[in-house]
């Protein structure tokens, strides 16, 4: 077993990060280069905070609009470090059974039936041992939080992604804070599991509500903004390589214009990539009004937003975008 059930208070992590935590010798620049190798283009702020979270062994809290690239940071970290990605997708009402552990009732039942059958054939009665067996690790289903705490300390640290924590309720947030502070999880029937080495933790929030200060204090915080024009051009070129360089610049410029329209859902990087792919599939090499009209649904996903863009003028959008792009 990779963790030791006991009830002593958790020591704070101290000293340099253990070797199975990647600590890039070249600082934030190394992090940026490593993320880029896995198709993620981070700006200096993000690369720095990822670097600090690895060195300081602190959870990373990424907040920002939907589609700006928060979840992808955890996915790329996992591919880079080789640590298993353990993902908790939060939603209202998420509880211990989905996030931490649950008992495998059907297997427990089978085990109990087998014990009963044995008892009948031997004329003995079911013993307390059988009950203990039912609540042993054999029947424990480890959900991502417990799996992260009990990961093999010899292997690469898993990357625990707590995605869209703003959707979960206060109780879950408080519980998460406790686990992140103690690096321990208690299963009443078995005791406390304590991480030998804490996992790499990435928490994301779309900021549909404010998170508690205590959780923020525990983490290193970074607001993930929409990319700059030049970075978005680069993102299009690596994520939608079928799109030529001129069209890539026009798309990035048009997306920038759309974000300035105070839309209900401004396009994120995800929409930019979708749009570029759609235009690529249609064989476009330049942006024009007809192409924008035909593909508007891949970049704006609300009717009201599409209407707002049309009211502002798609021809004007194309004109301004090509001026910016050139
Ligand atoms: N900086 C970036 N470099 C490369 N791809 C990115 C970047 N930011 C976002 N993406 C891509 O955009 C899409 C949406 O990103 P995601 O992480 O799911 O957004 P969020 O979690 O913020 O809603 C993904 O396909 C991701 O790969
Ligand atoms: Mg996400």
> Any idea how many domains?
3
Q: Radius of gyration over alpha carbons?
A: 25 Å
Q: Number of helical segments?
A: 15
| CATH H-level homologous superfamily name of the largest domain | P-loop containing nucleotide triphosphate hydrolases
Order of helices and strands: HHEHEHEHHEHEHEEEHEHHHHHH
**Beta-strand residue percentage:** 5-15%
Overall form: elongated
The number of E-state strands comes to 9
Please mark out the parts with pLDDT under 50 across 5 or more consecutive residues, or reply none.
1-18
Round the mean pLDDT to the nearest integer and report it: 90
Major sheet details = 5 strands, parallel
Residues in helices, as a percent range: 40-55%
Attached small molecules: adenosine-5'-diphosphate, magnesium ion
- The largest sheet has its strands arranged as 2-5-8-1-9
Topology:
Blueprint: H1 28-37, H2 44-56, E1 60-63, H3 70-81, E2 85-89, H4 96-99, E3 101-103, H5 105-122, H6 128-134, E4 140-142, H7 144-149, E5 159-163, H8 170-182, E6 184-187, E7 191-194, E8 200-205, H9 213-218, E9 220-223, H10 229-239, H11 245-259, H12 269-281, H13 289-295, H14 303-312, H15 314-325
Helix pairs in contact: 1-2, 10-11, 10-12, 11-15
The structure holds adenosine-5'-diphosphate and magnesium ion.
Residues 70-71, 163, 204 line the site of magnesium ion.
């Amino acid at each position: 077993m990779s963790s030791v059930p006991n009830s002593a208070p958790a020591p704070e992590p101290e000293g340099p990060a253990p070797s199975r935590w990647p600590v890039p010798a070249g600082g934030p620049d190394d992090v940026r280069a490593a993320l880029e190798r896995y198709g993620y283009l981070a700006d200096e702020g993000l690369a720095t905070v990822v670097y600090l979270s690895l060195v300081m062994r602190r959870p990373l809290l990424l907040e920002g609009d939907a589609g700006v690239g928060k979840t992808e940071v955890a996915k790329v970290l996992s591919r880079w470090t080789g640590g298993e990605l353990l993902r908790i997708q939060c939603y209202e009402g998420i509880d211990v059974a989905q996030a931490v552990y649950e008992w495998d009732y059907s297997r427990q039942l089978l085990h109990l039936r087998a014990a009963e059958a044995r008892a009948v054939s031997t004329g003995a009665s079911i013993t307390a041992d059988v009950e203990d067996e039912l609540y042993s690790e054999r029947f424990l289903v480890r959900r991502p939080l417990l799996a992260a705490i009990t990961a093999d300390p010899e292997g690469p640290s898993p990357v625990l992604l707590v995605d869209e924590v703003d959707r979960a309720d206060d109780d879950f947030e408080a519980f998460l804070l406790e686990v992140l502070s103690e690096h321990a999880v208690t299963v009443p029937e078995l005791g406390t599991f304590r991480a030998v080495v804490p996992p790499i933790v990435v928490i994301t929030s779309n900021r549909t509500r404010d998170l508690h200060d205590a959780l923020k204090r525990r983490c290193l915080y970074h607001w993930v903004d929409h990319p700059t024009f030049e970075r978005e051009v680069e993102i299009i070129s690596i994520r939608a390589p079928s799109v030529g360089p001129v069209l890539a610049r026009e798309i990035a410029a048009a997306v920038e214009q759309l974000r300035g329209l105070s839309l209900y859902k401004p396009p994120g990087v995800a929409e930019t990539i979708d749009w570029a792919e759609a235009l690529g599939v249609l064989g476009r090499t330049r942006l024009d009004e007809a192409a924008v009209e035909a593909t508007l649904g891949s970049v704006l996903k609300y009717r009201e937003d599409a209407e707002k863009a049309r009211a502002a003028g798609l021809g004007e959008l194309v004109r301004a975008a090509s001026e910016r792009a050139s």
